[in-house]
Amino acid sequence: MDLMELRQLRYFLAVADELHFGRAAARLHMTQPPLTVAVRKLEEELGVELFERTTRNVSLTAAGRMFRQRAGAVLEDLESAVADLGDVAAGVAGRLRIGFVSSASYSVLPRGLQAFQELRPRIHLEPRSLTSAEQITLLLEGELDVGILRDPLSVPGLHATLLEGEDLVAVLPAADALAAESIVPASSFHEKAVVLFPFELMPGFVSAVMSWLGTAQAVPRIVQSVIHQETVLGLVAAGVGASILPASVARFQMPGVVTRPLLGSPRTELYAVESPRSHPSSALLIDSLRGSK
Amino acid sequence: MDLMELRQLRYFLAVADELHFGRAAARLHMTQPPLTVAVRKLEEELGVELFERTTRNVSLTAAGRMFRQRAGAVLEDLESAVADLGDVAAGVAGRLRIGFVSSASYSVLPRGLQAFQELRPRIHLEPRSLTSAEQITLLLEGELDVGILRDPLSVPGLHATLLEGEDLVAVLPAADALAAESIVPASSFHEKAVVLFPFELMPGFVSAVMSWLGTAQAVPRIVQSVIHQETVLGLVAAGVGASILPASVARFQMPGVVTRPLLGSPRTELYAVESPRSHPSSALLIDSLRGSK
DNA sequence: TAAAAATACTCCATAGGTATTTTAT
DNA sequence: ATAAAATACCTATGGAGTATTTTTA
Q1: Residue after which a domain boundary falls, among B67, B90, B113
Q2: B6, B42, B146, B279: which to substitute to probe chain A, counting the most A Cβ within 10 Å?
Q3: How would residue A71 be classed by pLDDT, with cut points 50, 70 and 90?
Q4: Domain CATH for B18
């Protein structure tokens, strides 16, 4: 059964169409004897008679009729796969696996994907919400074509493109003393209860925050590490602690939470990172993300 | 493109699974060099790179990922077709194309098909209402596996099995003078307006009727030739003419129509006819039709 | 430097050709 | 008697093996 070959299927289908070995051979640009032999061999391998033959008449058996249908469909499927291959290689078809940090899902991502989809309607986009660390792992394994993440620690083998920079802001419970300030210095976070993203999952972003705090030797007390911006805001509103987040959190307008600019205007940056063995349209996607800021 | 072979697809899929030419070759019970060559050749034929390779790392390209899906599905489809082949050849699966005259659709057919379907649930039955003549043509062409028809003129190459015999009856408008008789002789049809099936479409049945009429040299006036029993009854009810039909028409109880037995009790017979190149379960179907009379 | 892919070559299995025979109408 | 499938035999392409080289992490 492992010896069956497409050649034999093509021969079988030609004979099934013509019901005449001579004409089928002509159509296949070959002579009749090897065709007869090849079809016989196929029947032996399958253990089933596909044709009833006399020297005057060739006709399909019930099994042959069934196999004609199925084998024909198989060949068509294969041909359509081959036809699509060129399009995928050229980057006009296929699927593109995209990772993104949740904070990208409100601005860059939706607009960028939409712009890209208009250029490449036959590419199926598969965006997944992932942490920066997860994305870097998957990008290196080739399981992701493009990652959208914050402040990547530069990783060898991955090329990063800046999508947008954004100021960081202090996120404070309304009742917090610091809420009275119009601008918050790093020193004021010293010994303060703080809710932050876990370093392991967002190494770039957290180290950016830490380096700003380091300018004033401020060492905050990390009371919680949580992954999602929304959760951070909830904890701040509940008075668990203060936090530092990208300015775009202001979009949420959460009651009981106020935001203040930071002294020295530290920034966080959103990058698109391309896998070395990514889909050929990855570059175009990154352009779309940059263009639709 | 016409040179692609299943062997190459199997090789490609093995390498795509292992992402390592050496291990893939082992799995295929072959050595590494010819595997490398075969995959390279496949890529050349397709005009597309399926793998990114270094001596340290083999990974799929976007095109390769797509082709892996599609080619894998193609192989599975083919294997399932091959697996089903045995069942079709053994007659436990497949489709069975059945022709029947409309008058069989009330008794033999439904019961017979149901009985058969219980024995062979995986065979898909395809019954079609056809005239006797159409059935004989299709049976000879191998386009039909079994035909159910009346009084076949014996045709070389077709084997007929008697399913049931039935008396013929006179079918008369209620107002007809013959309706007063309790039994109708052939002679009374001489010169009489008669509605009958067309000879070309039901040669066996019509010649049976004619031969009975011939016993009394009766020559009726054929005023209409129609195909369906139901239409014949409508015309008789409308007073267009008398007719001769199988006794089972009594089932219809049509107002304005009476039936009378015929002198000499001529009969019509329902046969199952098997195509010479029919499905292996044709014989079983015919048994089912006979058994459930 | 070591592991793995690529290249070079050799051999033989088999696909396909030519010539002929068999068979069914 | 003839058309077409089956058989016999031959040839050569190319698939697979062994030995070796090249590459990169």
Answers
A1: B90
A2: B6
A3: very high
A4: 1.10.10.10
Enclosing domain of residue B141? 94-163+270-290
Please tell me whether residues A85 and A155 are part of one structural domain: no
Q: How many CA atoms lie within 13 A of B146 on its CB side?
A: 26
On chain C, which bases lie within 7 A of the protein's CB atoms? Answer: 3-8, 15-19, 22-25
Asked whether residue B82 falls in the same domain as residue B118, the answer is no
Neighbours of A54 (CB within 10 A): 7
Domain boundary among A61, A90, A119: A90
Residue B232 predicted with pLDDT over 50: yes
Please state, in angstroms and rounded to a whole number, the distance separating the CA atoms of residues A113 and A98.
Answer: 10
Q: Are A99 and A231 in a shared domain? A: no
Looking at CA atoms only, how far is residue A25 from chain B in angstroms?
Answer: 15
pLDDT tens per residue across span A26-66 = 999 999 999 999 999 999 889 899 998 887 888 898 899 99
How many angstroms separate the CA atoms of B290 and B293, rounded?
Answer: 6
Question: In the predicted model, what is the mean pLDDT of chain B?
Answer: 89
- pLDDT tens digits, one per residue of A132-171: 888 988 888 788 999 999 887 677 778 889 998 889 999 9
CATH for B260: 3.40.190.10
pLDDT-based confidence at B103, cuts 50/70/90?
A: confident
- Closest C-alpha among A122, A150, A155, A117 to residue A136: A155
Among the listed residues B184, B176, B186, B190, the one whose alpha carbon sits nearest the alpha carbon of residue B241: B176
Distance CA B262, CA B178 (A): 11
Same domain, B185 and B49: no
Between positions 216 and 255 of B, the ones with CB within 8 A of A are none
Q: Are residues A41 and A16 in the same domain?
A: yes
Contact (CB<8Å) B71/A62: no
Whole-prediction pTM value?
0.75
> In this structure, are residues A109 and B99 in contact, taking their beta carbons and an 8 Å threshold?
no
Distance from CA of A150 to the nearest CA of B (A): 26
Chain B residues closer than 8 Å to A122 by CB: none
Buried b (16+ CB within 10 A) or exposed e, B108-118: bbeebbebbee
Number of compact structural domains in chain A? 3
Q: Is the CB of B40 under 7 A from strand C?
A: yes
Among the partner residues A5, A77, A84, nearest to B77 by beta-carbon distance:
A77
Domain shared by A81 and A103, yes or no? no
Q: Is the CB of B37 under 7 A from strand C?
A: yes
Same domain, A275 and A258: no
Banded model confidence at residue B293, pLDDT cuts 50, 70, 90: low
